[in-house]
Amino acid sequence: MSRTSAIEWGLRLPGQPSLAVHDNHWANGERDLVLHKPTVVPEMPAALSNLHNRLRTGISLSTRPGELRVMVFPTYVDAQERPRIKKSLTTWDLANVMGLPRLEELTAREGVRLEAAFDRPDLPPVDLDDPQHEKPLQHALFFPAADDETPVVAFVRFRVVPVLRHIGWLSPDDE
Predict the structure, then answer these.
(1) Distance, CA of 124 to CA of 23 (rounded, Å)
(2) In this structure, what are the phi and psi dihedrals at residue 86, rounded to the nearest 5 degrees?
(3) Beta bridge partners of 7
(4) How many Cβ atoms from other residues are within 10 Å of residue 99's Cβ?
(5) Cα–Cα dist 56/166, whole Å
(6) 170 by DSSP, 3-state: which?
(7) For the whole model, what pTM was predicted?
(8) Distance (Å, rounded) from C-alpha 169 to C-alpha 159?
(9) pLDDT (tens digit per residue) in 144-163
(10) Which sign does the torsion angle of CA 140, 141, 145, 148 carry?
């Protein structure tokens, strides 16, 4: 087993219990993000409770020096109120699921870009100005290694916000 040190980020919604996102830095060199499960979990809908300590998002090295990436796998809630992820989407589908303005906001950050997760010749380009709707692919968000905020914002947007919308804690128009 490896030990971890976590940087905790708080997520607060008016009238709801606070949530904590942990940016875990493991002794073995790995790094991930997760919705931290507190010792005492306040009352909340099952879909959100089931997200705690599950569906981690790994942060890994990019092929470019000084750059990291997180996979963009949006969460949805199944019929049993279990959060699940969708790995392959067309860029058009990803923009519709996540909201084009939210993706543009993330990629407007300095040094941040959205691309295909893997460099394969048969994959279409990822272009938010003209999102392709022909071929599903796995997307990744690339960001500077010194940027600690972007992966957390991305994690909240891709993993937590869809569940908060599902349970009614956020409306589709809420940021």
Answers:
(1) 32
(2) -110, 120
(3) 23
(4) 16
(5) 19
(6) coil
(7) 0.92
(8) 14
(9) 999 999 999 999 999 999 99
(10) negative
